[in-house]
From TrEMBL:
InterPro entries: Peripla_BP_I, SBP_2_dom. This is Monosaccharide ABC transporter substrate-binding protein, CUT2 family. Pfam families: Peripla_BP_4. The lineage of its organism: Bacteria, Bacillati, Actinomycetota, Actinomycetes, Pseudonocardiales. One of its GO terms (cellular component) is cell envelope. Its main location: other. It comes from the Bacteria. Transmembrane segments: none annotated. CDD domains: PBP1_galactofuranose_YtfQ-like. Keywords: Signal. GO terms for molecular function: carbohydrate binding. Residues 44-296 form the Periplasmic binding protein domain. PANTHER family: D-ALLOSE-BINDING PERIPLASMIC PROTEIN-RELATED, GALACTOFURANOSE-BINDING PROTEIN YTFQ.
Length: 322
C-alpha cells in the first residue's frame, strides 16, 4: 500500500443514501432561470494545498456553468459563519464549505436547512450528531493519511527515535485525524516516542517558529512529523538555521504532496510525503448539480490517494499540476 501512487484522484463511493429533504433539494429560489448559484466559504489561503484547492473550485465552477460566490475566511470560524449567513440571505441554490474546525456549526447549518438550501461539506468534516444538516461530505480520509505516515516511520526507524509533531490548526479535522492515525501505527514500536507536539496552524511561518523553539527545548530530535508540506518546509528553514541537515540529521515526514513539498522530497530534504489531493472542484460541481435537483448522492465521497518516496517524487514532479 505504501508503494501505491495515484496521480489522478479517483473516487470511491461508499454507502449510497437518498438525498433527503423537502423535494427538489431546496434552494434555487434566488437563482435566475436554471443557473445554479453556489456560495463557497473557503478556510483561507494558509497553504499551497489551499491555493490549489481554491483554483480547482473556481475553474470547475466556471466549466460547469455554476455561478460561484466565493469567500475567504482567513482561518476564522466566525468569518465562515458570516459568509454562510450571507449566502442564506442571498438565497443561493447550494452552499459548500470547508469547515475550519470540526465543532460549532449546528446553529448556522440549521438556518440553512430551514431556508431549504442544501449544504455540501468539502475537504473537512464537522463533528455533529445531526447528519441531516448536510447532504454529503467530499474529501480525504485523514486518519488513513496519518496511518500511512506512521507506517513509513515504523518500517524505517531503527533504535530509539524521538519525534516532534507539527500539528495543523487546533480543532481542525485533518489535525485531529492525522495525529490519531499516526499514533495508532507508531504504538507498535515503543522505541518511537513523540517528545513534543504543537500547532503550526498549517502555515510555513508557523512551522518555522514552532520548530525553532523545539530545536532549542529538545535535546534530541530524530524525526519531524508535519501535518502538511508547508509546515515541513518552514521546519526545514529552522533546521538549516540551526546548522543541521534536513532529511539526514533530522528526517521529515509531511502530508499533501504539493509542488514545493515534492521538490524538497526530490532534493532529499524531506523523506516521505503522504498525498492529500486538493483537486476537489470537479466532483464538488457534479455533486452540487445533483443535490440542487434533489437527486440521490452518496453520504460520503472519499478521494483516493497514495504516498511518495524521494525516488517516486523525482519521477512524478514533471507532471505535477499543483
Ligand atoms: O492538508 C493543509 C491545508 O484541509 C486537507 O488544510 C486540508 C489541509 C491541508 O491547510 O495543507
Amino acid at each position: 500500500m505504501l508503494k501505491k501512487i495515484t496521480t489522478l484522484a479517483s473516487v470511491v463511493l461508499l454507502s449510497a443514501v437518498t438525498a433527503c429533504g423537502s423535494g427538489g433539494g431546496g434552494g434555487g429560489t434566488g437563482s435566475s432561470g436554471d443557473t445554479i448559484t453556489m456560495g463557497f466559504a473557503q478556510v483561507g489561503a494558509e497553504s499551497g494545498w489551499r491555493t490549489a484547492n481554491t483554483k480547482s473550485i473556481q475553474d470547475e465552477a466556471k466549466a460547469a456553468g455554476i455561478d460561484l460566490k466565493f469567500s475567504d475566511a482567513q482561518q476564522k470560524q466566525e468569518n465562515q459563519i458570516k459568509a454562510i449567513r450571507s449566502y442564506i440571505q442571498q438565497k443561493v441554490s447550494v452552499i459548500a464549505f470547508s469547515p475550519v474546525v470540526e465543532t460549532g456549526w449546528d446553529t448556522v447549518l440549521l438556518e440553512a436547512k430551514r431556508a431549504n438550501i442544501p449544504v455540501i461539506l468539502t475537504d473537512r468534516s464537522i463533528d455533529s450528531d445531526d447528519t441531516s444538516l448536510y447532504k454529503t461530505f467530499l474529501g480525504s480520509d485523514f486518519v488513513e493519511e496519518g496511518r500511512r505516515a506512521g507506517d513509513w516511520l515504523v518500517s524505517n526507524a531503527s533504535g530509539p527515535t524521538s519525534v516532534v509533531e507539527l500539528q495543523g490548526t487546533t480543532g481542525a479535522a485533518p489535525a485531529i485525524d492525522r495525529k490519531k492515525g499516526f499514533e495508532e501505527k507508531i504504538a507498535a514500536k515503543p522505541d518511537i516516542k513523540v517528545v513534543a507536539s504543537q500547532t503550526g496552524d498549517f502555515t510555513r511561518s508557523g512551522g518555522k517558529q514552532v520548530m525553532e523553539a523545539m530545536l532549542k527545548s529538545q535535546p534530541k530530535i530524530d524525526v519531524v512529523y508535519a501535518h502538511n508540506d508547508d509546515m515541513g518546509l518552514g521546519a526545514i528553514e529552522a533546521i538549516k538555521a540551526a546548522g543541521k541537515v534536513p532529511g539526514k540529521d533530522i528526517k521529515i515526514i509531511t502530508v499533501d504532496a504539493v509542488k514545493d513539498g515534492m521538490q524538497a522530497l526530490a532534493n532529499g530534504e524531506i523523506n516521505f510525503i503522504v498525498e492529500c489531493n486538493p483537486l476537489l472542484g470537479k466532483q464538488l460541481m457534479d455533486l452540487a448539480k445533483k443535490v440542487v435537483k434533489g437527486e440521490e448522492v452518496p453520504a460520503r465521497v472519499v478521494t483516493e490517494e497514495g504516498t511518495f518516496t524521494q525516488e517516486q517524487a523525482k519521477a512524478a514532479l514533471p507532471q505535477r499540476q499543483y
